[in-house]
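Work Package 3 (structural annotation) set out to generate three-dimensional models for the target panel prioritized at the project kickoff. During this period the team completed the workflow that converts sequence records into discrete structure tokens, so that structures can be stored uniformly alongside our sequence database. As a representative example, we reproduce one entry of 504 residues exactly as it appears in the project archive.
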Amino acid sequence: MQRIFNACFLGLLAILPMSNTIALRNLLLLVLVCLVLFFLCFRRGQLALPLGKAWKKVPSVVLVWVVFLFLFPLWAVQGSVAWENLAGQWVESLLAGFVGAGAVLLLGQHGPSLWLLALASSFSLGLQLLLSLAALGGLLSADFYADPNFATVWGSFLQLKSAGVGPVWHWQNFLTGFRGIEPMHGNLGYAACQAIVLLSVCFLMAWRGQNKKIMFASGAIAGLCFLSILIAHSRGAILYGLLILAASALAYAWKMRVPLAITSARSRTLRSLLSRSFIGVALSVFVFIGLQSVRHDERWFSMVDKVELGLLSDEPLRLLCEGISSESEARIREKFSHGDPAYAQVLLDGLKLQDGGRILLMRAGFDLALENPRGFDGSRHSYRKLIEQKCGHVPALQFAHSHQGWIDLSLALGWTGLLIFGLMMACFLCIGWRQMEDQVLSSWAMALFLISGFWILRGFADSVYREHYLQMQMLLLTYLYGRLVLASSTVENLSTTLDQQTVR
């Protein structure tokens, strides 16, 4: 049962970021919940921690969050919708957290390592890279590009086999926003950032322990994760991925000042040469790929101007409701008339659909959040419903959500829900930060700190506190926290045993 649980746990972690996997996700989640309940009811003696002790280690803010979710529909504006969403995305996220904690109780020290967690998190990226190679070789048919899925991938290979045709490489098609079977580049981006966090910790722990095999493997796979999001043209993932690398290096330098034990001048020279060569080659590849990505993606060089338009535009709510007036459009074209005339059109499109529109959404969404302190219906559609009420009709610039996780959370669950959820995430962040100085706990603590920090910051740029993203967060956060508690308990037991032997 433990082997089955381990396989299902890693499988769930691997497919959670992927679109069109709802049935499989729910099946794996159900199997895992049933296994946890079975062990809690009939195999308590096999748990890694006594149930009473484990219960006491649950942060109180997590319990407050659970109670709040079950009480919120009682005062929600649309109570019936709130109950439906409680039974849907919110309970599913709680079950994912239950499974994450249960994995620690069932598997103990034999649970998935950070290395296995990183490999599982990067599964969807590996699939996309394999399909990228197939696309470069011309192995994918027109049916695949019309409807990318596993069936059309298999159909493409069958067609080539029957025709006896081999790969014909098309390098000019490289870096054109290819996403494989994933329709949303954000799903690849979130998986990549989660994997980069775990791989960064693996790399730094291997660096400290002089484990060259894990160090170079972690660096190589992290590089492939970056390659994946560069190909998919996921700007947010690229920026946050770089931020994660910087944060992990700073956290290591700040909290883990552990000198490296280098045995000889020869080993030091060899290690330095290998490290510099690897870093030099990796940087050269990424600079080349990055330049190609920027050159083929106008969103990069127009980003600052689009954000400026969104910030300077008067009455964001009116713009969303009524659209851009001819007078406003003329002023924008005049302001940017010194450049390419087509560039002004790019900025106008950005105000309607991209960065400029997101700034308008955040400004209008903040006002809506102030006007709705008790929340609306607990769903991901709260913004869309409230903006339509405010406009009195369907907005001219229509968006499904505010593209800002904290605003969406406030609109859905109110100020109270926003505060409790924020405190819960901050709790995990602070626990990870405090425990990083302990060499025994440092790897799990650092992973907990970086994962919680990533999701906290990512919420400021996109709506990530909903549906399967909530499951991704709760599954991994509770597992990392549980492993930290387990490691801490092991240290305490060892210390107690040594003290007793000293007394004797």
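The CA atoms of residues 175 and 231 lie 5 Å apart.
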